[in-house]
Design goal:
heterodimer, A: 327 residues, mainly alpha, ABC transporter involved in vitamin B12 uptake, BtuC, two-stranded antiparallel ribbon, 16 helices, 4 strands, 2% strand, globular, B: 333 residues, two-stranded antiparallel sheet
Chain lengths: 327, 333
C-alpha cells in the first residue's frame, strides 16, 4: 500500500474509498449489469422472488456476524434450521395441534425457537466455559443436529397445508414479502444491540482483545454465550421461514450448506474473522450480493455449478481486499 | 534430526496424553464388538470395513498435517469428488496413469490453497472454504453433474475391489504405506519438526529461521494429494466418478483428527492416533449395523449421525479435562 501514497492524495482517496465501500460498488455493478442484460429484471416479481430468498440468508448471516464479532464461528446454523423446521410441522400436525389449531400454531412457532435457543446455549457453553475452539464446538451440532431432525421425522418429507403458518414465508405487507420486513426489523434491533448497549460494547471488545475485555471486568462468558444463542435462535427462525415457503419440511435439505452462505455473506459484508467488528447491515448487503450473483447467473442460463465457482471467487476477493486494507 | 524415542510407548503417552482416550475407546469398542457379535472378527468384516474406511483414513492423515500447522482444510471432500471424476475419465488408460494424474489434480487444489494462504495471506478457513465451493462446481462442470462410469475393461477397478496377492485389499496396502511414510516424515525429519514448530508458534518459527512457508505449502499440497487418493479409491471401489459425493467429508476428517487428540491450535498431535480416531468413528457405523442385525433394536441410519456427534462431544470433554490438568501442572512449575 506504500506505493499508493506516493502517487498523490487524490489517487489514495479514491482507492481507499473504493476499498471501504467495496460491497456497495460490487452491488452497483451487479445491479447495472442486470438492468442491461437480464430480461425482466426491473419487475416487481423479480424483486419479490429475490427478497423472499435473500431474507433467510440475511437473517442467519446477521446472527453469524455477532458470533464472528467475538472471534468465533458457528457451523451449526444449517443443522439448527433443519431441527426447528422439522419440529414445527410435527407440532401443528400432532393430535394436540389439530385439536387446538390456535394453540398448536403458537406452540409450533415458539417451541422450535426454544429448541434453537437450547442449541445456542449448548454451543455457547462449550465455547465460553469449556474453552473449546468454536469450529469444533459447533461441529458437534453440525453433525448431530440434522441427525436429530431426521430421527424425529424418520427422514420423511412432511407436507402440510396451514395458511396461517405459511404466512411466515408467503405473506406480504405493502406488496413486500413478510420475511423481508422481518429481516429489516431484526437488523434494526441488532444494530441497536451492537451499537447502543453494554452487551454490544463487550461483544466488540471481546473480538478486539478477549484478555483485555476480561481484565477490564467484562462479562466475557455471558456475552459470548449470548452471541451464540442469538445466532441459533435466528437460524431457528430462518428454518421456520424455509418450511413456511415450501409448505413442506425436509430435514435432509433444509438449511443445507447455509453455514457457507452465512459466513460468506458476513465476510463480504465486512465482518473480520478475527473479530472486533459487527457490521449488521453489511451482513444484509453481503446476503443481497450473494443472492444477486446466484440469480444473475441463473437468469442468464449459466448453470448452478458455475455459480458455485463464482461464489468461491467472491469470497476470496472480499477477504483479500479486507486483508489488504488492514495492512 | 533422528528422534530415537519416536516409537517408545511410554514417551508416546507422555507426549500425547490427550491421545490416550481414543485408544481406550477404540479397544473398548472392538472388545465389545468381538464379545457381542459372532462375525465381528471375521476376515470378511475386517477387510470390508478397512477397505471402505481407507479413503476416510487417507483424508484424515492429510488433514492432521494441516491442523498441526494450526490451519484447516475444508476443501478435501469436494476435491475428492473432483478427483474421482478425473480418475473415472482416465480409467481406460489403467490405474498406473489414472491414479498419479488424479492425485496430481488433488495436489493442484492443495497448491492453490497454499498460494492463497501463504502469499495472499487469506485465512485458511476462508481459502479452503472457497476452494471447497470451487472444486465442487468444477467437478459438476467436468462431469455434467452425472456420475461417470469407469472403464471395467482396464485394471482400474482392481485397486478398489481386489486383494494384493489375494490377501489384503490394495486400498489397505496403499493406506498402510501412506500412514507409515507420513508418520516417519512427522517424527523423524526436519520437515516434520518444522511443521510442529509452526503450529506451536509461527512467529517464533520464522524468527528461528525455519522454512515456515515451505512447511505450509507442503501440508496443503499433501492434504490435496490425500484427498486425490481418496477420490481414486472412491471411483475404483464404487465403479464410478461421483461429483456429488464428499459432502461433509471434511468435517468427518476434522472430527477424526480431533478425536485422535490433535490440538486444533496446532503444534501437537499424532498420526497413529488420527488413524485410530478415523477407525473409531467408522466403527460406530459398523457396530450399529451389527446391532440392527441382531434385531433387538432398530437404529435408523439417522441415529448414526447423532451418535457420532455425541462421541465427538464425549471425547472433547475428556480432552479439555486432560489439557486443563496439564496446563495447571505446567503453570505450577
Amino acid at each position: 500500500m506504500t506505493s499508493l501514497t506516493s502517487e498523490g492524495p487524490m489517487r489514495t482517496d479514491i482507492t481507499t474509498r473504493l476499498k471501504h465501500h467495496g460491497g456497495l460498488v460490487a452491488l452497483a455493478i451487479i445491479l447495472l449489469f442486470n438492468i442491461v442484460v437480464t430480461p425482466n429484471f426491473l419487475q416487481a416479481q423479480t424483486l419479490a422472488v429475490n427478497i423472499s430468498q435473500v431474507a433467510t440468508i440475511a437473517i442467519v448471516a446477521m446472527g453469524m456476524t455477532l458470533v464472528i464479532a467475538t472471534g468465533g464461528i458457528d457451523l451449526s446454523v444449517g443443522a439448527v434450521m433443519a431441527l426447528s423446521g422439522a419440529l414445527a410441522p410435527l407440532i401443528f400436525l400432532s393430535d394436540f395441534g389439530t385439536a387446538y389449531p390456535a394453540l398448536g400454531l403458537i406452540a409450533a412457532l415458539l417451541f422450535p425457537l426454544v429448541a434453537a435457543l437450547v442449541c445456542g446455549l449448548f454451543n455457547g457453553v462449550i465455547v465460553a466455559v469449556l474453552r473449546v475452539q468454536p469450529i469444533i464446538a459447533t461441529l458437534i451440532l453440525f453433525i448431530s443436529g440434522r441427525g436429530i431432525a431426521q430421527v424425529l421425522t424418520n427422514g420423511n418429507l412432511q407436507t402440510f397445508s396451514n395458511p396461517e403458518f405459511s404466512y411466515l414465508g408467503t405473506g406480504k405487507i405493502l406488496g413486500f414479502p413478510f420475511q423481508g420486513w422481518l429481516a429489516i426489523a431484526i437488523a434494526c434491533l441488532l444494530f441497536w444491540l451492537v451499537n447502543r448497549t453494554v452487551f454490544g460494547r463487550y461483544l466488540l471488545a471481546i473480538g478486539g482483545n478477549e484478555r483485555a475485555a476480561k481484565l477490564a471486568g467484562g462479562p466475557v462468558r455471558s456475552v459470548k454465550i449470548g452471541a451464540y444463542v442469538i445466532c441459533s435462535v435466528l437460524s431457528g427462525l430462518a428454518g421456520l421461514i424455509v418450511v413456511a415457503i415450501n409448505s413442506a419440511s425436509d430435514a435432509a435439505r433444509n438449511g443445507n450448506l447455509m453455514e457457507l452462505d452465512a459466513i460468506a455473506a458476513a465476510v463480504v459484508g465486512g465482518a473480520l474473522l478475527q473479530g472486533g467488528k459487527a457490521p449488521i447491515f453489511g451482513a444484509i448487503l453481503g446476503a443481497v450480493i450473494i443472492q444477486l450473483v446466484k440469480y444473475t447467473l441463473l437468469a442468464n442460463g449459466v448453470e448452478d455449478e458455475v455459480a458455485l465457482i463464482a461464489k468461491a471467487a467472491i469470497i476470496l476477493a472480499a477477504v483479500y481486499i479486507q486483508q489488504a486494507r488492514k495492512e | 534430526m533422528l528422534d530415537q524415542n519416536a516409537f517408545d510407548l511410554r514417551k508416546y503417552i507422555s507426549r500425547n496424553p490427550q491421545s490416550v482416550a481414543v485408544w481406550i475407546a477404540l479397544f473398548v469398542l472392538i472388545g465389545f464388538g468381538l464379545l457381542r457379535y459372532d462375525n465381528f472378527g471375521s476376515a470378511y468384516n475386517i477387510t470390508s470395513f478397512l477397505n471402505y474406511n481407507a479413503m476416510f483414513i487417507a483424508i484424515s492423515v492429510g488433514m492432521c498435517f494441516v491442523i498441526l500447522t494450526g490451519g484447516i482444510d475444508l476443501s478435501v471432500g469436494s476435491v475428492a469428488a473432483f478427483t474421482s471424476v478425473v480418475a473415472a475419465y482416465l480409467s481406460p488408460y489403467g490405474i498406473e496413469v489414472a491414479m498419479p494424474l488424479a492425485i496430481l489434480s488433488g495436489v493442484g487444489f492443495g497448491l492453490f490453497n497454499a498460494i492463497c494462504i501463504v502469499y495472499g495471506r487469506i485465512p485458511p478457513f476462508i481459502t479452503t472454504l472457497a476452494t471447497m465451493l470451487g472444486a465442487k462446481g468444477g467437478s459438476l462442470v467436468i462431469s455434467g453433474a452425472q456420475t461417470i462410469a469407469v472403464d471395467w475393461g482396464s485394471n482400474f477397478t482392481q485397486l478398489g475391489m481386489e486383494k494384493a496377492f489375494g490377501v489384503v485389499p490394495w486400498t489397505i496396502v496403499i493406506v498402510g504405506i501412506l500412514i507409515v511414510g507420513l508418520w516417519i516424515v512427522l517424527e523423524m525429519t526436519s520437515l516434520g519438526r518444522t511443521i510442529l514448530a509452526v503450529g506451536g508458534g509461527e512467529d517464533a518459527s520464522v524468527m528461528m529461521g525455519l522454512k515456515v512457508n515451505r512447511a505450509k505449502i507442503f501440508v496443503y499440497a499433501l492434504s490435496g494429494g490425500c484427498a486425490g487418493l481418496a477420490g481414486v479409491f472412491l471411483a475404483s471401489g464404487f465403479g464410478a466418478g461421483q461429483p456429488l459425493e464428499g459432502v461433509g467429508w471434511e468435517l468427518s476428517a476434522i472430527a477424526s483428527v480431533v478425536v485422535g487428540g490433535t490440538l486444533l491450535t496446532g503444534g501437537m498431535g499424532s498420526i497413529p492416533a488420527t488413524v485410530a480416531g478415523a477407525l473409531l468413528l467408522g466403527l460406530v457405523f459398523n457396530i450399529l449395523n451389527f446391532e440392527n442385525g441382531k434385531g433387538w433394536i432398530s437404529f435408523s441410519a439417522y441415529w448414526q449421525m447423532v451418535i457420532r456427534g455425541a462421541f465427538l462431544f464425549a471425547v472433547i470433554l475428556f480432552q479439555t479435562r486432560v489439557m486443563n490438568r496439564r496446563s495447571t501442572v505446567e503453570f505450577a512449575k
